[in-house]
Amino acid sequence: MAYPSNNITFADRPETPPQPSCFVPYGRDPDFVDRGTLLDQLRRRCAAPASRVALIGLGGVGKSQLAIEHCYRTAEESPETWVFWAHASNTARLEQSFREIADQVKVRGHKDPQADVFRLVHDWLRDKKNGQWLLVLDNADDATVLSPPPSNGQTWSEDNITDGGTGGGSSSSALQQHLSRYLPPSTHGSVLLTSRTRRAALEIVDKDSDILPIEPMHDATAHALLCKKLGDKVDRSDGISELAAALEYMPLALVQAAAFIRERAPRSSVQQYLAEYRESDSRKTSLLNRAAGHLRRDKAASNSVLLTWQISFEHIRSSRRSAADLLSLMSFFDRQGIQEALLRNPGSTADNDSFEDDVLTLRDYSFITVTMEANTFEMHDLVQLATRTWLGNQYQLHSWQGRFISNLCAEMPTGEHENWHKCQVLFPHAKAALAQRPQDKDSLEEWALLLYKASWYAWQQGKAGDAEHMSTLSMEVRQEVFGEENAETLSSMDMVGRARELGGRYKEAEAMNRQTLALRETVLGREHPDTLTSMNNLAGVLDRQGKYEEAEAMNRQTLALKETVLGREHPDTLTSMNNLALVLDSQGKYKEAEAMNRQTLALSEMVLGREHPYTLTSMSNLALVLDSQGKYEEAEAMNRQTLALSETRALGITLSVGTITQPLVPVANIMLRLEWMR
To answer: Average pLDDT in the 173-195 region?
Structure first.
C-alpha cells in the first residue's frame, strides 16, 4: 500500500462575496419571438416561493430558448437576483456545472478539487442572506442522471447533507443523493428545468401542475420567426405559412430551413425549399438506418426535423466540404463542452480563417452553438445522431470515428494531479468514446490508450466503477493487440487492480496484482521500477484485507530492492518506508513504526523540503502512530504543524506511486484528530 488513499484537502480563506450576476452561457437571441403567454406563465410560476417549474416537450421545440429569455428578463427586472445555469444531460457535465456555480459565488471550499460541490452549492442556496436566486437545469432528459449510482445506499436528511459523509469508493464531488435533495425549498429561490420527458421532470418538480408543456409554435409565431430568420434579402411574399405548416411549426426546423434558404438566396426561395423538402421524403427516411439496426420512431411522431437536417447536410457538403467535415468530427464527442483544440489536427497549421468560416457555416444552420467561452461548442444529440447515420450511409463512419479517437487521445493527459482540470473537462468525451470501439488496429491502440488515461483520472477521483470499466476495456484490447507480456498491457492490468481495490473488491484486486507482478518479474525483471510498483500494490491490497504479516514481508522486500536499485533517498523508496511503517502500525508494532516514520520524515525533509506532499504525509503518519501509543501532546503538536503547512500550500496533495499518483488523506481528518484529542 502506498500513502493513505484519500486526498489531503485544505481549508481556503474566505473570499469577498461577488455581486449577484446572470451566469447564462448563451447570448440573448435578438430574433426571439414571444410565444403568446408562455413567458408570462413562466414568470408567474417562478415567482412563487420555493417554486420548481419544468418545461417539457420534444427536442427542438424551443424549451431552452424560452429558459434563456426568461433568465435575461429576470436579470433585467430583478438585478439583485442570482441567475445560474446547469447542464444536466449527463452526470459529468452536471457535476462540472455545479463546480462552476460554486466558483461563481466563491463559496468557501470551492477551490478544493475534491470538495463535494453539490453540498457546497446546496448550503449556499439555502442561506437566505445570499439573496434571491434562479437556477436552470437544462436538458435534464435522463432520469438516471439525477440520481446517485445504484451502489450508493445512503439515506438522506437535511442535516447529513450539510454535515457531510460520503460512501466509500466514490469521489466527494460525485452525486451522493438524488439531485432534488440538493435543491433546497427556499422561499428566496426557484428552479427551472427543461426536459424532453415528463418522467425526468417529475424527478425534480413535485406534481404535474408544476410542469409547463411546450408545444410547437402557432402559425402566427412560426410565421414571425421565419420572417426574422430569413432576413430582408429573401423574398418573403409567398410560401412562408405553407413552409411553417410543412415543418409542423417546430422552431429548430424553422430556423434551419431559413438558414438554408438565406445562404442560397437569391438562387433559392421558400417555394424551392418546399419542393425539395417534399421530393426527398423516401430518400431522407433512409437516413435513419445505421449499422446497429434501424432507428425507428413512432408512426405518429414527426420526422420533419431530421428530414430538414438531411437537406442541410448535403448542401453543406456540396457548398463547403470542410464545414461538413467539421460537423462529422463533432458528432462523436459528448454533446457539450466540445473544445476547439479537439477539432484541429495536432500540429496543424491550417488556415484559421477557414476554420472560422466552417464554424460560421454550422452556426448558421444552428447545428452547433458557441458558448460564452467562445472556444467551446455544443450540439444537440439528435443532430449528432443524424450526422453519424448520414456518415454511415456515405461509408465514412469508421474513418471519422478514428479521427475522433485520435484527436481526443492526443488531448487527454494522464491522471496526475497537475492535469486534473484538463481531465475534468475532457472526461465526458472519454466516456462518450466508450461506445465508439474502432475496427482498424491503429485506432484500436489509440482507443485503448485513451481509456487507460481516462481510467487513471477516474481512479484519482475515486470513481471506481468508471476506472474499472475503462481500464478493463483497455486491458482487453491491449491483450488482443499486443499480447499479455507487453509493457502497455501490463500498465492496463495494473490499473485494473488499482480500480478493483478502490471499489473494495480486494480479492479480485489481489488476484490481478499477483498476475501483474508475476508477468512483470518475467518480462521486466525483479528490479525494474514497474515491478517494484506491482510489489507495492500487492502489499497494499494485502494490508487492506488484514493480511498484515504477508503485507509486511512484501513491503520489506520492496523496500530492500528500492534501496538497492533507486537509493535510500529516492521518493519511491520513501514511499515504501512509509508503507512499511503503516503496516507495522496496523499490527501494533508501534515503536518500530514510530522509528520508521521518523526516518522517513527526516529523509523527506532533507531531500524534498518541509512543505512537500511526501513530507506532509510522513508528518501525518508519524502523528498517527504517536496517537496510537498515547503520546497525545506530541501527536497533537505534529498534527497542528501538518495542518498549518498544508493550509500554507492551499492545494490538494498527491503522492507518486511508481509512475502514477494516488489520492491521500484529507486534512479534514487531521482536524478531526485534533478534535478527538481535546
So the answer is: 89
Q: Where are the domains of the chain?
A: 38-213, 219-295+303-399
CA distance 162 to 119: 7
| Cα gap 364→593, rounded to integer Å | 68
Q: Order of strands, edge to edge, in the sheet holding 368-370?
A: 338-339, 376-379, 368-370
Please, which residues have CB within 8 angstroms of residue 222's CB and are 6 or more apart in sequence? 216, 244, 247, 249, 251, 254
Q: Quote the pLDDT of residue 160.
A: 54
Start-to-end CA span in the chain (Å): 31
- Tell me which of 180-184, 224-228, 291-295, 429-433 is least confident: 291-295
How far is the C-alpha of 34 from the C-alpha of 56, rounded, in Å?
18
Mean pLDDT score across all residues of the chain: 82
Collapsed DSSP state (helix, strand, coil) of residue 16: coil
**Which of 259-281 are b and which e, b meaning 16 or more Cβ less than 10 Å from the residue's Cβ?**
bbbebeeeebbbeebbeebeeee
CATH class of the domain at 38-213: alpha beta
pLDDT of residue 306: 60
| Residue 214 CB burial class (10 angstroms; 0-12, 13-18, ≥19) | buried
For 381-428, the pLDDT digits (tens) are 767 877 887 888 788 999 999 999 999 999 999 998 789 899 999 999
What CA–CA distance (Å, rounded) separates 585 from 591? 9
Query: What is the residue type of 514?
Result: R
* Residue 213 backbone dihedrals phi, psi, to 5 degrees: -65, 135
- Amino acid at position 513, single letter: N
